[in-house]
Design goal:
By secondary structure, this protein is of the alpha/beta class. It has three domains: 104 residues, 3-Layer(aba) Sandwich (Rossmann fold); 102 residues, Rossmann fold (3-Layer(aba) Sandwich), CATH 3.40.50; 79 residues, 3-Layer(aba) Sandwich (Rossmann fold), CATH 3.40.50.10800. It contains 15 helices and twelve strands. A four-stranded parallel β-sheet has the order 2-1-3-4, with helices on both faces. Strands 6-5-7-8 form a four-stranded parallel β-sheet. A four-stranded parallel β-sheet has the order 10-9-11-12, sandwiched between helices. The chain is globular, with a radius of gyration of 19 Å. The relative contact order is 0.17. The mean pLDDT is 97. The protein binds 1,3-dihydroxyacetonephosphate and iron/sulfur cluster (SF4). The site of iron/sulfur cluster (SF4) has 12 residues, from helix 5.
């Protein structure tokens, strides 16, 4: 079946099911192009919360679909591929965090969790952040409590420096962003000397030090649009290149992948395909389901984040 036929079928099924399709900026171009909304984790969380239709098809990874369930529990949330996980989420199992907090009860940590984590971790957190609002949220953290930042040591270290506040960092990371090396960035800089290097804060410090600008996926769009530069080396997952090329025409965007290596692709994000999207709308599965007690506990820190980032 051609992509065009699949797209037609998806549009038809979407009407029949009264569904909305939300997609993260790391999704395949053809999925981004047919989605009702494309965005970063923060914008997608808001869209999911506001969704009034019966079904939310979440083209992203599991924790994102789970977040949609937490914020809008009366909708059916579908994830086209149930194996779409996240290495960053996996680097902080809820039981390990609970044990750490129990062992360090005397410290009375204020737990800040990056949205890339499981519902179990969210339920243990005081507040959630995304890469787009981590500075703003941490600035509101109580001054008299030490901060524990989970699970991403890179976003944590970058934010700590930005807000000038020490934080204890969980030792987690995203395997995609950790694949980028300083040598490769230097090589690309030499190849495109006029280009600006824009990187995601999930990158390691040696990369961040080479960047002209560090920001979340969503903020890359206005940054590149407003910059005087005509070319950009984009140090994050490849999916954002499609969005940048579409929304910032006339400028050139160069990704970190190369011929022998699609090292800038998140294998989990790319598990979703048009065919699986069609199948999930047709079969109404895989559906993401969560337990109500856990949902209520995870909703509080998520809602706190949404209220603070208005
Ligand atoms: P954003 O928060 O920028 O959407 O990024 C999510 C993500 O998974 C980054 O790897
Ligand atoms: Fe998770 Fe990294 Fe993939 Fe983002 S790019 S979804 S952090 S594994």
């Amino acid at each position: 079946m051609s992509n065009q036929d699949l797209i037609q079928e998806i549009q038809q099924l979407k009407k029949e099911r009264n569904a909305v399709i939300l997609a993260h900026s790391y999704q395949r171009p053809e999925i981004q192009d047919l989605a009702d909304f494309v965005g970063d984790s923060l914008a997608l969380a808001r869209k999911a919360q506001e969704a009034e239709c019966d079904v939310i098809v979440f083209c992203g990874v599991h924790f994102m679909a789970e977040t949609a369930c937490i914020l809008n529990p009366t909708r059916t949330v579908l994830l086209p591929d149930k194996e779409a996980a996240c290495s960053l989420e996996e680097s902080c199992p809820a039981e390990e965090l609970a044990a750490f907090l129990e062992e360090n009860k005397d410290k009375n940590y204020y737990v800040v969790a990056y949205i890339n984590c499981s519902i179990g971790v969210k339920a243990l957190a005081d507040v959630i952040v995304t890469s787009g609002n981590s500075q703003r949220i941490i600035e509101t953290a109580p001054a008299d409590r030490p901060i524990l930042f989970v699970p991403d040591r890179n976003l944590g270290a970058w934010t700590a420096r930005k807000v000038g506040r020490e934080m204890t960092l969980w030792n987690g990371a995203c395997h995609v962003h950790e694949r980028f090396t300083r040598d490769r960035v230097l090589e690309m800089r030499a190849q495109y000397p006029d280009a600006e290097v824009v990187c995601h804060p999930e990158c390691q410090e040696p990369i961040r030090l080479l960047a002209d600008h560090i920001c979340s996926t969503e903020k890359m769009i206005p940054y590149c649009r407003d910059s005087k530069a005509a070319r950009f080396i984009i140090v994050t997952e490849s999916g954002i290149l499609h969005r940048l090329r579409k929304l910032v025409p006339g400028k050139e965007f160069i990704g970190m992948g190369f011929e022998q290596c699609s090292c800038n692709e998140c294998e989990y994000m790319k598990l979703n395909t048009l065919e699986k999207l069609r199948n999930c709308l047709r079969d109404m599965e895989p559906e993401v389901r969560i337990e109500e007690d856990l949902r209520r506990r995870a909703e509080k820190p998520l809602q706190r984040m949404l209220d603070l980032s208005l």
